[in-house]
Amino acid sequence: MHDYDAATQALGQAVLDYTLQRLRMEPVPLDGPRTLAELEQACGATITANGLGGLAALELFSTQLAPACISTDHPRYLSFIPCAPTEASTLFDLVVGASALYGGSWLEGAGAVYAENAALRWLADLAAFPEGAGGVFVPGGTVGNLSALVAARHAARTQRVGPAPSRWKVLGSNQAHSSIASACEVMDVDFVTVPFDERGRLTGANVLRTIEAVGVDGVFAVVGTAGTTNFGIIDDLASLAGACQRLGVWFHVDAAYGGAGLAAPTIRERFDGIERADSFIVDPHKWLFAPFDCCALLYRDPQTARAAHTQRAAYLDVLTQAPDWNPADYAIGLTRRARGLPLWFSLATHGTRAYSEAVERTLEVARYAAVQIRQRCDLELLREPDTSVVVFRRVGWTPQHYQLWSERLLRQGFAFVVPTTHDGETVTRFAIVNPRTSEADIDDILDTML
Ligand SMILES: *Cc1c(COP(=O)(O)O)cnc(C)c1O
Q1: Which of 48, 207, 365, 430 could connect to 390 by a Cys-Cys bridge, CB 3.0–4.6 Å?
Q2: The CATH fold of domain 94-350
Q3: What pLDDT, on a 0 to 100 scale, did the predictor assign at position 318?
Q4: Domain limits of the chain?
């Protein structure tokens, strides 16, 4: 299995051919799920004592398994948050896989860590974080938020004089992503929700009002969201930063989806205040054109994070006692893929200006969608978009109408747009993060709602 022989050579060629063909398709097929029974019938037992052989397994993947997965990079995939990696980032993912890189420590992965840190520095600069800022690429926003909150609680515990509070608490809006409540559950701390303002934003004033009601004891972090997943709403980060400063608590910004907007001059000012955060996350696998799985976690002062996260063991002393930058010191997890490298390679290839332009392009299409929705008499825009998420209703439709419409579009291999809810009402939403999504795609989808 470990010899590079003629069969390996043939398999390598086939894998590369498949990859390049997938990248060349324009557009890729949307595809869609099949039932377990259908897959069992089509594939049978795939793992056998003697093996199928690489070419047969690849054939099985390309003819049966891949078509049973929706292509998240299809230009009319507008559900949840799509993923639209650049060609360069996807290709480099292959290189990362082929290079047996260990991304956890400087000793083992200095070159990879150096490059990942350059990509992190670009994000830190976009947020106007100070020179000493730093962090690590983790699998996703969920792990990023959890790691930041663990660092925040560690800092609060260390600074605290006197006995522990009865409960540790995190404050955030009820529009915060489900991963915040999940992180609180994992940490066994309370998540206290703060009412949002008339524009759906969390504000410093509302945080202070909630603190008056529940008390500040045990509160160790306030979470602001820069781009809520359902609506793309950016909280009032500047007033949140002010409130956190007054209270002396950690300010974390969850910009998993919206953070790419930092690179877009037309909306950059909506993020003002992020420069005062103690930590923030951005998922390049969402709106920064990197393949799964990639979340950038940045700390203003990495030393506090390091104190919280460094794992100590005799066999690790050679790493932890060195003064080097070890990515594993800044998040949950020890062994890590150098998952920031596809983003780094693409940034190094294309330069940062191309990124700003690509994010602006998606914003342009989102604004176009908002205008079209406003102009069509059967459609109503729920809210002027802050970012590239557009939420709207089809007047007169019941939840079942939305469901059947959505299923039909997917079945036809035409588009993937699922319903969502707002204040208990079923509506639908476009999340536009793919620069290949065009005005014509928007028109064509809206035409199916007549
Ligand atoms: C997607 C998202 C997350 C979770 O990120 P994963 O990468 O899916 O774990 C957290 N917060 C926000 C605002 C998100 O949009």
Answers
A1: 430
A2: Aspartate Aminotransferase; domain 2 (3.40.640)
A3: 86
A4: 6-30+33-69, 94-350, 352-447
Identify the helix (H) or strand (E) that includes residue 42: helix 36-43
Task: For ligand 1, atom 7, name the residue with the nearest CA.
Answer: 140
Q: What is the CATH number of domain 352-447?
A: 3.90.1150.170
What letter represents residue 366's amino acid?
Answer: A
Report which ligand 1 atom has the smallest distance to the Cα of 176.
Answer: 13
Cα of 54 vs centre of ligand 1, distance in Å, is: 35
Specify burial of residue 32 (Cβ count, 10 A radius: 0-12, 13-18, 19+).
middle
Say if CB 226 and CB 254 are below 8 A apart.
Answer: yes
Atom of ligand 1 nearest to the CA of 225: 13
Residues enclosing ligand 1, CB less than 6 A? 81, 140-142, 177, 179, 225, 229, 254, 256-257, 283, 295
pLDDT-flagged residues of the chain (< 50): none
- Atom of ligand 1 minimally distant from the CA of 140: 7
Two structure tokens written together for 93 = 């993912």
Q: What distance in Å separates the CA atoms of residue 149 and residue 221, rounded to the nearest whole number? A: 7
Of 409, 410, 404, nearest in space to 68 by CA: 410
With b meaning 16 or more CB within 10 Å and e meaning fewer, what string describes 249-277? bbbbbbbbbbbbbbbbeebeebbebbbbb
CA of 282 to the centre of ligand 1 (A): 9
Which phi-psi region, left, alpha or beta, contains residue 89 (left: φ > 0; alpha: ψ -120 to 50)? alpha
The DSSP line for 184-245 is: HHHHT-EEEEE---TTS---HHHHHHHHHHH-STTEEEEEEEBS-TTT-PBP-HHHHHHHHH
Q: What is the pLDDT of residue 315?
A: 87
CB-based contacts of 312: which residues, under 8 Å, 6+ apart?
320
Q: CA-CA distances (angstroms) from residue 41 to 55, 64, 65, 241?
A: 20, 10, 12, 56
Q: What is the pLDDT of residue 320?
A: 82
Q: Are 193 and 174 in contact (CB under 8 A)?
A: yes
Peptide bond into 293 cis (omega under 30): yes
The pTM of the full predicted model, rounded to 2 decimals, is 0.97
pLDDT confidence of residue 296: 98
- Give the separation between CA 70 and CA 33, rounded to whole angstroms: 7
Q: Output phi, psi for 325, to 5 deg.
A: -85, 110
Q: Which of 21, 169, 31 is nearest to 90 (CA)?
A: 21
Place of tokens 């909280």: 235
C-alpha–C-alpha distance, residues 96 and 337, integer Å: 8
